[in-house]
Amino acid sequence: MADETNRRGRACQFGKLEFYVMWSNLRDVFARQLVVLVDPTNPQHTRRRKQLTVAVGTVFTLGMAAAMGVAPRNAFDDPLAPRVEHTLRMPDVHEQLEQLTEASDAGVYVQQERMQRGDTIGSLLRRLGVDDPDAQAFIVKNPTARSLFDLNPGQAVQAEIDSSNLLVSLQANLGGDAGSSRELVIERVAPKKEGGDFTYKARIEAVDNDLHYEMASGAIDATGFFKSMDSASVPDEVVNQMISIFSGVIDFHHDIARGDRFRIVYEAGFRDGAFVRNGRVVAIELINRNTLYQALWYAPKDGTPGAYYTFDGRSMKRPFLRSPVEFSRVSSGFGGRDHPLHHQWKQHKGVDFAAPQGTKVIATADATVEFAGQQNGYGNIVVLKHANGYSTFYAHLSRFAGLREGQHVSQGQLIGYVGSTGWATGPHLHYEFRYNDVPQNPLTTTLMEAPTLTGKSRADFLTYTSATLSRINMLRTYNVLTASN
User: Fold this and answer.
1) What is the CB neighbour count within 10 angstroms for residue 414?
2) pTM of the full predicted structure?
3) Residue-number span of the structural domain to which 412 is assigned
4) What CATH number corresponds to the domain at position 150?
5) Up-side HSE of residue 189: CA atoms within 13 Å toward CB?
C-alpha cells in the first residue's frame, strides 16, 4: 500500500515537472515569436505577420459561419410565410420638371473674384461675368457704391448674376475690426410698373465676424526683437500692441535680450471663412532677462472700460511710461556730463533720446499742458503738469501737435515731433522728469504700483480669464514638448 502511494506521488511530481517544462518551452516560443512580430528588421517578420493575419481572419470567419448556422430563420426565408402585395402609384413629376426648367431659365448664378492691382470697375465686372452697362454706371456714380474703389488687391467681391448676365446683387467686405465688418451691398430693384426698367440701390451694413483666437510663441534670437517676431509670424499690429502693453515696465529698445521668450493669444476676425483683420491681444506672456511679465485683457461687468491686468489681477497701466519716444536710443543719460556745445561740465537734468527728425513724441502720463512754446536752450518745449507734484519736460521739438495751454492730454497721446531746436547738435528729445520741480532720473525712478482687484471683482476676473489662461498653458506645453524633441 505504501509503495503504491509512493509511486503515485512520484508520478504526480513527474507530471508537474513535465507541465512546468512544457509551459516554459511554450512561453519561450511565444516570446520568440513576439520578438519576431515587433522587430521589423527580423528576416521572418513579414512572414510571421502574414501568418498571424491569416489566423485571426480564419477565426473570425469560422465564428461568423457558426453564428449564421445557429441563427433562427426569419419569414423572408420561409417560402410558406404569408405575403401581402400592394400596387404603388408613381407620382406625376411632369409639373415639377417644368418648374425646374422655368427656374433654370431664370436662374441666378454666384461668382466670386478678387481685386487685382490696376483693376477698374469694368474689368472687375467682366471677370465676374457681368455684362450690365446700367449696373456699371450706377456703381461709378453712386457715392455709396463707389466704396468698391477703396478695396485693396486680394479682397474678394461676390456677385449674383441672372441668365442674361445682368447683375442681381454684389457684396464686398470693406473692412472693420475683428468682431464686425462693414459690408457693401448693391442690389437690383424690380420696376414698380410692369415693363419699367430695373434700378439699383447700395448700402453699407455692419455684419458680425467669426472671432477666432490665434496663438503664437517663440524666442528672441540674434536677429533682434522685430525680426524674431516676423519669424514667429506675429502680425505687425499685434507687435505694436505688445510694445504698448508693456511700455510701463519694459523699454523694448534697450531691455530686450537674446533668449527672451514670448507667448501671445490674440483675436482674428473671419467672414465666410476669409480673414478680415487681426484684433486685440487678449493674453501675453514675456520672459525678459529671466523676469516673467504677464498681461491679459479684462472688461469688468460694471461697465468700467476694459484694460490690461496681470494674471493675478493687478492693473498693467503705470502712472508713467518708460519712454516718450518710439524706436530711439539714450544718447545722454541723467547726471553730470561735458556739455556738447559749451564744453563745460554741467548737471544734465534729464535724458536725451536720439531719434530721426520728425519722430513722434508722446505724453508719458495723463496731464495738463502747462506750457507749449520756446524757452532759450530748450528750443520748442512742452511742459506737462501731472498729479501729486510731478511734471515732465519735452524739449528740442521740431513742431507741436496742436497743443494749447490748459489742455488735458492722455497717456500715450501725441504731443510733438523730435527736432533739433534750441541748444542741440542734432535731432533728439531732451526729456526731464521732476517731482516738486526737482529733477529725477526717469530711467530709475520707481513709482507706486497699480492697485490689485479684490473681492467680487477679483472673483469675476478669475472666472472671465480662465479660458484665456488655458490657451497660454497650451503654448507652454507646446514649448516644453518642442524643446524636449
Assistant:
1) 14
2) 0.54
3) 329-440
4) 3.10.450.350
5) 11
